[in-house]
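Appendix B, example 12.
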Amino acid sequence: MLAAQVIGVGSYAPDRRVDNAELSRTIETSDAWIRERTGIGERRIAAPGEVASDLATAAAKRALEVAGLKPNDIDMIVVATVTGDRPLPATAAIVQRKLGVTNRCGAFDLAAACAGFVYGLGLGNALIGQGQCRHVLVIGVEVLSRFVDWQDRTTCVLFGDGAGAVVLGPGAEEQPPGISGVHLHCQGSMSHLLTIPAGGSERPASEASLAEREHYVRMEGQDVFRVAVKELASACLSAIDAQQLKAAEVDWVVAHQANERILEAVAQRSGIPFERFFRNIARYGNTSSASIPLALDEAYQHGSLEPGSKLVLCALGAGIAWGSCVVRWHLPKPTPRSAAGP
């Protein structure tokens, strides 16, 4: 089976920054309270009229530029999101149009919440490996600011908006596989721990659901925290064990940026030093499926990723869904032309 690798990466975050001090003027909280519990200092918020496909398209254009490809070189577009533009069509179809892709390539959305990007990466790797596609565009994007209750300090302080994208292409035979050790899991019996109760076929949006604020994110925070620590650590070890790697050989862990305390606990359980966990949660908060590719692009633009670097990617979110994989980085350092980050 042909192995895929990352040949392009890009990201986009809205201009508006909302720091903890601003939140403390509208809800009962403080900068110290938020930072101590989450590690978050600020988050980006989409502008009025700015939608998921806008963020996704901007990130995709940057990834295509790094890859040196044109939109019509893409054979499949996978958009991981739970906050797409509309119930239908797929946000991926709208991204295809906004990119100017005219080759009628496949395009669809994938809903695995915060684990969505890892799921998409595994799927893109399989499509290339089976010879069905040569170039796959995988995007993680969320506009969660429109789905959180800004009166609930336990959730609204956590989430932000953003997008990240990678272009996958076939790796050279003489190189180690770019993406390997993919593990994808879900425990549906815990699906109640993190949910948006209303808005689907079970409970369509109505005056009653709006009055009960059921169309916003609800989370059993302590339970999610415990599950995340356990399963993310296990997923990291499963990915590196599958590739016969040791914790000491991992250069970077690029994990879902949900909570800095979770990352600290995962580092302790996995035996991978916390210093090797790339972290940008302080600046962006939890951007769900966008967090890993956004962090990947920031690490790349800052020169932290050397060709040959071994990365572990892991994420957990609603479902409860989680996954992990090993990425061997083959991209050279960025040129000044592609150095504009989010």
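The chain has a mean pLDDT of 94. The longest strand covers residues 161-170.
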